[in-house]
Structure formats: structure tokens, C-alpha cells
Design brief:
The structure is a homodimer. Chain A is an alpha/beta fold. Chain A has helices at about 1-10, 20-25, 30-35, 45-55, 65-70, 85-100, 115-130, 140-150, 175-185, 205-210, 230-240, 255-270, 300-320, and strands at about 75-80, 105-110, 135, 155-160, 170, 190-195, 220-225, 250, 275-280, 295-300, 325, 330. Chain A folds into three domains: about 1-60, lambda repressor-like DNA-binding domains (434 Repressor (Amino-terminal Domain), Orthogonal Bundle), CATH 1.10.260.40; about 75-170 and about 300-330, 3-Layer(aba) Sandwich (Rossmann fold), CATH 3.40.50; about 175-300, Rossmann fold. The first copy, chain A, has 13 helices and twelve strands. In chain A, strand 1 (about 75-80), helix 6 and strand 2 (about 105-110) form a beta-alpha-beta unit. Chain A is elongated, with a radius of gyration of 27 Å. Chain A binds a DNA duplex through helix 3 and helix 5.
DNA sequence: AATGGTAATGTAACTGGTTACAAGAACCTG
DNA sequence: CAGGTTCTTGTAACCAGTTACATTACCATT
């Protein structure tokens, strides 16, 4: 019985607001507001009365109303290509952790590397009140630039370091990341190198990495462009195995692809690193444990996330526009690469 | 010169609001509002004037002010233990995609499986105006229940199916997921089984899976409780290899752990499935390509994400409280399991 | 020219909080 | 007990939009 009454009341009950609480506790709206924001300034007995009313009416202050006064919504948006790649997940996790410390929440949206979708997502972020925006890479739809310019929204580009970009960048030099991997293979005397990479057209990080693949030496490159997935790595490796003029080394522009390659080589008995050297870029947690352990270029994405979060927090809180900061990839030598030996 | 003037103006320039635009274009605030929300009702010439003013003043409507009128913020929050495990990333990706279709954004926060942190994150979600909350599992800090109850916030528990929970649940029966894996091993005559799992104390999904591990048969279980990471899987496998009374099968309550186990067995030459059968739960993308391919219990998390998003959208848009819905795990037989053969 | 109907626009009240300022009450000091 | 502090509390303006309702403008009939 009691339950039923309570339930039916629950359904018809409108949300209580400040005025309701004020009325119920016989004080003014200002006093209720004070109880919520600076309780010390209210006398204990008044405060107690108000708190009871708050409890009874299940009063929850409106975030929007608060935001309209402070001009703050206390969250920032991040646009990433996908969540399916652990590299972004780790970046976001680091960023979120640091943002929370500044009392900022993180809103995530995925763009699937499509500039049009990216603009839509950015517009949505703005519409719901994001105070800042983090994007990946520096190449975007013109509308995104217009949007940011118009709205004066703090924006930071990540996974890329470029002092000439429209916005501050926090990231690494993608060209030198891939050059690091390439140089390692060259040092091991590899001259026939398969390069497995994700879609280049819409992804400037991939393009930059591809551009980093230059050398004075006479190298025979073979490019495999695919989706970024373990499966695609498997398929690329399968192709190589059927090639009578097979490469001696495989450079994957993403560890996810390298894992696929490693799996397929392993499965088909193609010895790594004896027959094929394999090197990746990213350094995912699994890369330290794969068989063989993957030599890869470590991208400090957690650090990137923390730095980005700090910069963003300082920007939205204190209006200090961050400088671009470069973080440095480092080659992580493990077991999947070895000196080239002609059979 | 021009640049400098433009810059200094930019710095001092306050953000324009509706009234400013109205003044600049010589119309009333209502007309400007109409230009933004229902342009057809405004005469073309007036509209043009207003649009120019909007452009000139770089007017961007305040999300908060809009929200205060509509009572809507158009985003919902999701609390997940971590982003580091691909299983959550995939769930969130699916949910985000579906929410976008309903014009809702997704705010993500991680709890690290800590009930206290979870409450804080939930409070934060509420403070910034989330219209709904998605959580993992059904066991939470009492304060979280109070919070949801007080605020009448639409809340859905996922990764768990339980009709008796405080909130609607959308997920699978974790006990039967692990039972599926166990039964498979039993059918293959395994009786000494290592169970590798994540921290049980704070994770009701893990506990439920553990509870599913019951049988009439005389089975010798050995439990390995660790962090959920590839590395932990490696370590557990290493332990097993040193055990003279080694198990014949390994049941991992998470694919991430299984991958670690597989890597270590592979590396040390312990044949899978001949010497050890290995089975997982989750079915990550990599599981179909590992060596050997991992037999695992497929959890349809993408479907779970979509369903959750639909339910949440219906709840916040049309106030229809969703029913709990169960999604069914299915055993995905691949190559990592085989009949037990005494050596 | 008067009437009517519709389309376009304006006025002002509203949303739900915060806060500057004013005013009243309580307390202290000489 | 007057006068001055300090502490509490209230009033009302304000934030930046939306929207019900009123008003005006415009065009077509009769």
C-alpha cells in the first residue's frame, strides 16, 4: 500500500527546484543557494531546516542553470578515429585521469577517420557545451577550422607535432617515428621491405609515417594498404608468403597490424626473425609478450594524454594557450628483428 | 598591422549573445532565436540580416542556456572499469554509434573497478548534467544507489543480466558464460583445470563467472587470481609450466588473459591444444587469429552496446523505462581445445 | 475603402540557478 | 543604553536563451 502511494507520487512528481526548496523550508532562494555552495555562511539551525527540505524534495540542482551563471560546463571533448585500437584507449584513459584532477570530465566521440563525421561530432560537442576540443592529427575539414575559429573554442591537435598547425599540437613527429623503425631495419641490412599500413588518404599521421620512409640507400619497398586490424595483418602476411620475391623485413605502421603479421608467420612456420624481421609502431601492452616479442617504436601515448589534459585544463581554467609540445618516440628493440641473412 | 589590431580586438572581445545579435541586426531577440531554430518562419530579408550579424559577431548560442529551457543536455554517461580492455572499447563504440543516431552524446569515465571512485564519477556525471547513466554490473556502493534514487536518474546496468537488480539490466548471464566454457572442457574429458581470472572482490561479473564453475563431476580446479592483462596471463602460464601436477586445461575468464597464456605456452613449446587446452571468455578480434586460434565464449558486446543505447535513448526521450534484456553468450569453438589425452 | 486573414515580428514572462546589495538581528564595547 | 560591528537573511537583478501571446504589416476580397 505504502509502496503504491509512493510510486504513484513518484510518477507525477515534478522535479523540485530552488524555489520549491526555499518555500518548503521557509527561507529565501539565496539561503538555499548558500546552503549548497557555502554552508558556513548559514546558521546551523537554518541550514538543518534547508537540508531536510532538500532531502525530502530530492532536490538536485540543475547543471544547466549552474552552467549558465558560471559560464562553465566543466567538460571537454575528444575526437578519436576509433576506440577499437588500444592505442587510443590508452591515450584517452591517461587524459581522463588527468582531467578529473582538474574537475573536468571527458566526452568522447569517434570519427572513423572521416573528416565529415568529424565536423558533425565537433558541432555536437559545441552544441552540448564542451569547453575545449581535442582532435587527432592536423589535417581536417575546412569547416572544422571555421567552427573552431568562430567559436573561439580551445582546440588541441594530438598524435602529431607541427609548429605550423592552426592549433597547438601535442604529439610526436610521425615521420621520424617510422624513420626510426626503418633505420633499424636498414642497420640490419634489410633492403626488401614490406610496409603494412592503414588507409593513408584520410589520415595524416599515416601519411607522415609513410613520408618518413626515405633513404639514400637502394631499398625495394612494397606497400600493403589495409584497414587497421589483426585480420588485415594476417592477410598481408599471407600475401607475402606467396610472393616468390618475398621481402626480408616487414615494417608495420601500427602494432595491431604487426600482431596479425606475427600470428600468420607463426602459424605458417615462417621463422621470425630468421626469415622475416618484423617491426611495428605504437608499442601496445601485448607487444612485449607476443611470440616473438615485437620490436617496435614506442609512442608515449599515456604521457601524451596527461600532457594534453594538463594543457587543456590550463587553457579552459586560466586561459593560458598552451605551446605545442613534442614527445619523443623511442625504438624498443625486442626479438622480432635480426640481421638479414641471404639464404 | 591588421593582424595585430584583429588580435587585440579578439582578446578584449566578449562573447556575443542573443541580445547583441538582435541589436546589431535591428530585430528582437525572438526573431534571432527563430532564425536559429525555425528559419522558415522568418522572412528571407530579415533572416539574411540576422545571419550576417551572427556571422560578424561570431555568435555561438550557449549550450547551457538552451539546456535550461529544454531541460535537456543531450548526453548520457557511461562508467566502465577500464578502457584498456578491448571488450569495453567495443561496447562503448557500439553504444556511441547508436546514441549519436538519437542525437545523444556519450560521456565516458573509468572506475578502475573501485566502488568509491565509481560514486565520485557518477556524482560528477550528474553535476555536469548527464541525462542517464550506464554502469557495469549490479553491485555498487550504497551511495550510488542513493544517488540514482534521489536524482531519479535513468540508470542501466550492463554486462550482467539480473531481473532482481535495482535498475534494468542489459547483458548476459555471467555464470552461464563460464559454465559454457567449463562444459566444453568437461566434454573433452578435462578434469584438472586451471582457472585464470581477474580480481573477484570488487567485480561481480568475475564473481558470477566463478560461481558458474560448478559440476557434479570430480574436477580439480586451480585458481589464479591476477590483474587482467596479457602479462598476467603470461605469468600464470609460467606458473603452470613449473607445476609437476600441471592441469590439462586452462579456463581464462577473460580473453586478454588467455592471450597471455597462449603466448607463454607458445614461447615455451608447450603444445596447445595437445598438452594444454585453453579456453577464454569475451572473443576479442585477435582471438580469431591467435596461434592457435582461441576457443572462447563469444559475448555479443556490440549488440549489448546497441541495445543499451536504444534503451537509454527511449528512456530519456520518451520516458519509457526499459525492460531488462538478456543477450546470449555462445561458445566459439576454434583450435585451442582438444580431447584430453593422458601422456 | 473597409474588412478579413495570414504572415512576420515584437514584448515580456519564463527556465533555475547565483550573487550584489540592502536590511534586519544579534552581539559587543564604552 | 547608544553606537558600532559582525553575522544572517532577504530582495531582486542577472545569466542567455525559448516561447506564449500580442501586435503590426501586408495582401486579397468584397
Amino acid at each position: 500500500m505504502v509502496t503504491i502511494i509512493a510510486m504513484s507520487r513518484k510518477i507525477t512528481q515534478k522535479k523540485a527546484n530552488l524555489r520549491d526548496v526555499a518555500k518548503a523550508s521557509g527561507v529565501s532562494v539565496a539561503t538555499v543557494s548558500r546552503v549548497m555552495n557555502s554552508p558556513q555562511t548559514v546558521s546551523p539551525k537554518t541550514r538543518a531546516r534547508v537540508e531536510i527540505a532538500i532531502r525530502d524534495l530530492k532536490f538536485v540542482p540543475s547543471a544547466a542553470a549552474r552552467a549558465i551563471n558560471s559560464g562553465r560546463t566543466r567538460f571537454v571533448g575528444a575526437l578519436v578515429p576509433t576506440l577499437d585500437n588500444a592505442i587510443f584507449a590508452r591515450f584517452l584513459a591517461a587524459m581522463e585521469t588527468r582531467l578529473i584532477d582538474s574537475g573536468l570530465a571527458l566526452v568522447v566521440a569517434t570519427t572513423n577517420d572521416d573528416p565529415e563525421i568529424e565536423v558533425q561530432r565537433a558541432e555536437n560537442m559545441l552544441k552540448i557545451g564542451a569547453e575545449g576540443l581535442v582532435v587527432s592529427g592536423v589535417t581536417h575539414h575546412p569547416d572544422l577550422h571555421t567552427l573552431i575559429e568562430r567559436s573561439q573554442l580551445p582546440a588541441i591537435a594530438t598524435s602529431y607535432y607541427d609548429l605550423n598547425a592552426d592549433w597547438p599540437t601535442i604529439g610526436y613527429d610521425n615521420a621520424s617515428a617510422s624513420r626510426l623503425a626503418l633505420q633499424h631495419l636498414l642497420d640490419l641490412n634489410h633492403r626488401k621491405i614490406a610496409v603494412v599500413h592503414g588507409p593513408a588518404e584520410k589520415n595524416d599521421r599515416t601519411r607522415a609515417r609513410l613520408n618518413g620512409l626515405t633513404t639514400e640507400l637502394d631499398v625495394d619497398f612494397r606497400f600493403y594498404e589495409t584497414r587497421i586490424s589483426v585480420e588485415s595483418g594476417v592477410r598481408a602476411a599471407r600475401d607475402m608468403l606467396q610472393d616468390q620475391d618475398a621481402p626480408s623485413a616487414v615494417l608495420c605502421l601500427s602494432d595491431v597490424l604487426a600482431h596479425g603479421v606475427l600470428f600468420e608467420f607463426q602459424r605458417s612456420g615462417a621463422a621470425v626473425p630468421d626469415r622475416f624481421s618484423v617491426v611495428g609502431i605504437d608499442d601496445l601492452p601485448a607487444s612485449a609478450h607476443s611470440v616473438p616479442r615485437l620490436t617496435t617504436v614506442h609512442l608515449p601515448v599515456s604521457q601524451m594524454g596527461t600532457t594534453t589534459a594538463e594543457a587543456m585544463a590550463a587553457w579552459v581554467e586560466d586561459k593560458v594557450v598552451p605551446d605545442s609540445t613534442q614527445i619523443h618516440p623511442v625504438l624498443q628493440e625486442r626479438e622480432s628483428t635480426a640481421k638479414y641473412q641471404p639464404c
